[in-house]
Batch of 2 targets.
Target 1
Amino acid sequence: MTTALYRRYRPDTFQDVIGQEHVTAPLMAALRADRVTHAYLFSGPRGCGKTTSARILARCLNCEQFPTDTPCGQCPSCRDLATGGPGSLDVVEIDAASHNGVDDARDLRERASFAPARDRYKIFILDEAHMVTPQGFNALLKLVEEPPEHVKFIFATTEPDKVIGTIRSRTHHYPFRLVPPDILEGYLGRLCQAERIDVGPGVFPLVVRAGGGSVRDTLSVMDQLIGGAVGGEVDYQRAVALLGYTDTTLLDSCVEAMAAADGAGVFRVVDRVVTSGHDPRRFVEDLLQRLRDLLVIALAGSEAGPALGSLPGDELSRMEGQARTIGAAGLSRAADATAKALDQMVGATSPRLQLELLMARLLLPEARTTAQPAPPTGRPA
């Protein structure tokens, strides 16, 4: 049984945390200067490094080399808190989703009153802190405001607005962000090289898109693809099939038929989507993404690269031709109609019918305009 990638490659130092330099740099500066406050609030989307950073901060604070911004990795505290380590009695992680009431807050206050068993500080990491009830937060308020010298708090949450203001105002708030695609793709490349996995062209953009900017979600998707790899290789077609995305050749056929006003070609694509078992709504979602990319190319020209991510050269060349043929105005109208159709397909009883109606609208732009009643021709009585 193998350990999940996101657990095996969990960072042990701030230098290893990717895409969060706006958080890690000031934290490291505060650690080096020994200007560490008593309570922190880490907020941001799931899987972007909040709990990991809280653990790294705890390692730094209890490292024998403190003040330091990098755990030594050799002292008992650093070894206990390292990835795969047994943990430390003096660093307490609490799942606030299941320990969120007044009684839990009272228990935490009692535990905080005792000195650390071995290390410099007793550190409480409250994960999912937004799940604590207002009454639970109020029971913690005095302790968070004036904790003993040996106590530190780190709150981690995806919804900082649900942490009551009196708690937020007593913490240093660090907002984490989703990681940009180019950083994630580079990270995946290094990881797959370390795992000795060959990855085909176009796979990393699919994985990054499926992960939505979350490092943990992205690694989970990559782990799934690696688990199903044949001969140590992850190829594009297998990734498309497993992740449920639409093959680029199908999108090319659809867009080129639209550009040529080829109704038969467009409805052949619809038939291929349905008979091959694709989800019509996912196809429309992928078509909207393609129209967006074409619109970026039409408007930005040769400067569109950063907004598109990494695309194979032949695919980019085809898309440039499609963008020139349809034009920015036509792409904008098509994207607008596709976005509206995507909303209408939620809960639709006949997704194929909705898809066919969308294709008709894209072929007949005038069908999207509302006819105005003709003005009266007779004279008033």
Target 2
Amino acid sequence: MAVRELIRLENVCKFYQMGDTRVEALKDFSMTIHENDYMAIFGPSGSGKSTLLHMMGLLDIPSSGSIFVDEVDVSKMPENRLARIRGKKIGFIFQVFNLVPSLTALENVALPMMIYDVPKYEREKHAEELLISLDMGNRISHVPGELSGGQRQRVAIARSLANNPEVILADEPTGNLDSKTGGEVVDIFNQFHKEGKTLVVVTHDPDIARNAEEIIRIKDGRLVEHEVSKEHLLRVGRTITGFQKVNNDIGTKRKVK
């Protein structure tokens, strides 16, 4: 049985005009996210990783090329329709936690559900369950200023799950954390993958990237290498033309010219 395709980018280009200079952030980029993928977007600062995540998350539109969600082209949809798709299908985790300072952990996690008129009791119950699942049950009444960096990131992770999204997109989620706390976040992501969640992590840290079963390496806005584990190929049920076996951990690798 074929694994469902969730998001697909086809020949996506993105450029920005900075005065008289045209900056090309993404160049002819194509990729697909399947259900239960655990993917790392890996590359140096300024390589286009965050721009790529914004495209996948429908936070920006391409200058050319197409973005498909559930095999429907959304590239030219109006913002109000894109916002609806984002809210229902995609959860975001950022390097900067983006928590509302005056709200408790519980209220921050419940906030995305208010957009969809989920009753207050249900919002709070679901938010509490998410926080408990991330070992934050004893911090639900604390505001962000009373939490450590790692605890704030756990609240942000719980918030990303509030509307039961099909895809979780994380942009440098350990960038503001020490190595121990960052490792705990990676453990959470590994557990998410075991539970069947679809996860895409943007990172410049090779220790984080190697946990993924699929690694897309990006440089100067181009996809330069795509590594896929054998487990991923078996699960997705497809072969990828031009790949070569490299080792037992990463099953195939393709360099993109």
